[in-house]
Amino acid sequence: MQFRNATIDDLPMIVAIYNSTVDSRMVTADTEPVSVSNKINWFNQHHSKRPLWVVENENNAIIGWISFQDFYGRPAYDGTAEISIYIHEHFRKMGFGKKMLEYSISKVSELNIHTLLGFVFEHNTNSIKMCESLGFETWGNLKDIAIMDCKHYSLKILGLKIN
Q1: In this structure, what CATH number is given to the domain that contains residue 41?
Q2: E strands in 2-150
């Protein structure tokens, strides 16, 4: 696997991977697909300390992407970041998510991050187990905070303190 900073040319694939998860109601609270133009501002919010990486296989096919975003926007939280990992549907359930998370954890100190947060739907047990296997703990549970298709969903806040 190769990790590299995303370019604007990658944005259509990043959005396509993201949109492939919307209908599952497992990983995003968006209820409709998003457009590339809707994600330009989000793309531009990434920088050297809050990167957006694409992950490619040996054939340069994009496996997925990783995003680091600020948490809460106050200076005291500068060392805390939310991490998001999305995998192309052809590469899911093959262990890439765990490898991507392991790599991310190994690099966060270079980004001046001491605390990683993941926001994961409580019913997404595979993602929760993967995070827990790498040391994340449940730091919060927001009961029935999301409503999709007239159903309530709870959101777990998973945290990892980086030493």
Answers
A1: 3.40.630.30
A2: 2-5, 52-56, 62-70, 80-87, 115-121, 137-148
Q: Which two tokens stand for residue 83?
A: 């991490």
Residue 92 lies in domain: 2-114
How far apart, in whole angstroms, are the C-alpha atoms of residue 98 and residue 90? Answer: 16
pLDDT digits (tens, 9 = 90+) for 87-139: 999 999 999 999 999 999 999 999 999 999 999 999 999 999 999 999 999 99
CA distance readout (Å), 7 to 55, 59, 133: 12, 18, 31
In a domain, 84, yes or no: yes
- Of 61, 68, 69, 59, the C-alpha closest to 88 is 61
- Please measure the distance between the N-terminal and C-terminal CA atoms of the chain and give it in whole angstroms: 25
- Give the CA count within 13 Å in the CB-facing half-sphere of 90: 6
